[in-house]
Amino acid sequence: MITGKNYIGAELSAKGQVTYKTVNPETNTENKTVFYEATDEEVNKAVNLAVKAFRTYKNTSDKDKATFLDAIATQLEAIKDSLTDIYMKESGLPGGRANGEFARTTGQLRAFATMLREGSWVEAILHVTEGKPDIRRMQVPVGPVVVFGASNFPFAFSTAGGDTASALAAGCPVIVKSHPLHAGTGELVSSAIIKAAKETGMPDGVFSNLNSKGIGVGRTLVQHPLVKAVGFTGSIKGGTALCKLAAEREEPIPVYAEMGSINPVVVLPSALKEKSSFWATQYAGSITAGTGQFCTNPGLILGVKSEAFDTFTRALGEAISDIAPTCMLHPGIKEQYEKTKQEVLSQSGYSEVAAPHTKVKENYALQQVIAVDGAVFLKNKAYHKEVFGPFSVIVRCKGEAELTEVLEHLEGQLTGTILSEDEGELRHFAETIEALKSRVGRLIFNGVPTGVEVSAAMTHGGPFPATSDSKFTSVGLTAVKRWVRPVSYQDWPDALLPDALKNNNPLQIVRTINGEVTQNAV
């Protein structure tokens, strides 16, 4: 049952006077539950509980943390039907998407549990040389972490998503600022986390969930002197505002923000010789997937002017026009889509590739593709703007040099894609590919950017404004690195060292000893 209350640790609380409801964008009606905006008192209580929990949780064994994460996944699975129902009512997303995202959420929880059981994630490094200081280094958790739920992924990037899973794996208590668009989903997910925490003996305050429709609760959390780090997925405006707040604190803290990306796709000539129609169909699907509400949506497609590129452009326009429009996440997001799209369309110098004018339901989005010449794109940064929805810009470059120049002038991106069927061509366009690589966190070959695999090798990040810190990822096992810091022990008695650093390696983890990667004892 959804109460609309805040989880302050294991306690449900509703002390505020400000309330709100979520919206079903498919029916354009409010859902029934009333949610209570968290008060400053509730925020402070949640943070103080997290600080108290950290004293215990930071020293909880990796094995016990793994059991906790597995238990969260199991508890989520026990209420999957209820979760899927409210997910769909609050997001307008279909059941297939809900099921896929749910599986990803439980899968990444279990992936972090597996990582913890293996244990080498702590990066134990030992320098043990006779006649010199004995120095041993490992990663330790930073403290309470604030996680902001994302509008477009109610499961996988929100309450029990990658930020929460990785922070809990690191040994950091988590306070979630629930996203107001899917607060009911967030509360049900929170109930599963709290139940798992009790079941596995985790300290009260290891997790809290706070509701808020406005920006006040988020601001208070980021400015709270006992919070040590922040995870955010959302707009450039929101992410940069949080970074500024965190930097202006008496004790500045890191904000790991994933913010904006148009994910350039470079179509090299050989890709169009035999697969022009194939790629047109693939990219029509990618642009409209999830109503274009993916951070990896291909918002920019580039190629060298040619008859083949013109044919591809027309085929893309036809393919995307044949796709039925779908529902956006919220009336406010639909409104923002139309506003941002019009800001781009108010510019001069473009031509329409696809602009369906079918009458659609109120919160449904019509997809659109436009084309501009490379020279126009270089002169007008309005065409660089991320339009959050099913919208893409095709850039026709007059040659290889202009194509490379366009990429060199792009802002930082999450992904960049190369389409080609010729290794010799790839070598010829080496400078172009290097220009693309310098702007992205993930370089894709002959694929689409939508879809982010959860794995140890994944980088879901990139240069600003894709993220606030391009050295880190918000997806994959190395996402845990955001919530830890290195500590070196010098000349410390072996019996008092953490198990990861002891001579006999009781955890049997892989360590680096005097430059050698080994599981051996010292």
Characterization of this structure:
By secondary structure, this protein is of the alpha/beta class. Helices cover 37% and strands 20% of the residues. It is built from 16 helices and 25 strands. The protein has a seven-stranded mixed beta sheet with strand order 17-19-20-15-14-21-22. Helix 2 (62-78) runs antiparallel to helix 4, helix 3 (80-91) crosses helix 4 and helix 4 (95-118) packs parallel to helix 5. The longest helix has 24 residues, at 95-118. The protein is globular and about 75 Å long.
Largest sheet: 7 strands, mixed
Helix content: 25-40%
For the residues shown, what is the average pLDDT? 97
Q: What gyration radius follows from the Cα positions, in whole Å?
A: 24 Å
Number of helices: 16
Strand content: 15-25%
How many beta-strand runs?
25
Identify the overall geometry.
globular
Lateral arrangement of strands in the main beta sheet: 17-19-20-15-14-21-22
Rounded to the nearest angstrom, the distance between the terminal CA atoms is 54 Å
What structural class do you assign from the helix and strand content?
Answer: alpha/beta
Low-confidence stretches: none
Task: Record keyword descriptors for this entry.
single chain; alpha/beta; about 525 residues; 7-stranded mixed sheet; about 20% strand
How do the helices and strands line up, and which of them pair or pack?
Elements: E1 6-8, E2 11-13, E3 19-20, E4 23-24, E5 29-30, E6 35-36, H1 40-57, H2 62-78, H3 80-91, H4 95-118, E7 125-127, E8 135-141, E9 145-148, H5 162-170, E10 174-177, H6 183-199, E11 207-210, H7 216-223, E12 229-233, H8 236-247, E13 255-258, E14 264-267, H9 271-274, H10 276-288, E15 300-304, H11 307-321, E16 326-327, H12 331-345, E17 350-354, E18 364-365, E19 368-373, H13 374-379, E20 391-397, H14 400-408, E21 413-419, H15 423-428, H16 430-437, E22 440-445, E23 484-490, E24 511-513, E25 516-518
Parallel strand pairs: 7-24, 9-10, 9-12, 10-11, 12-13, 14-15, 14-21, 15-20, 19-20, 21-22
Antiparallel strand pairs: 1-2, 3-6, 4-5, 7-8, 8-23, 16-18, 17-19, 24-25
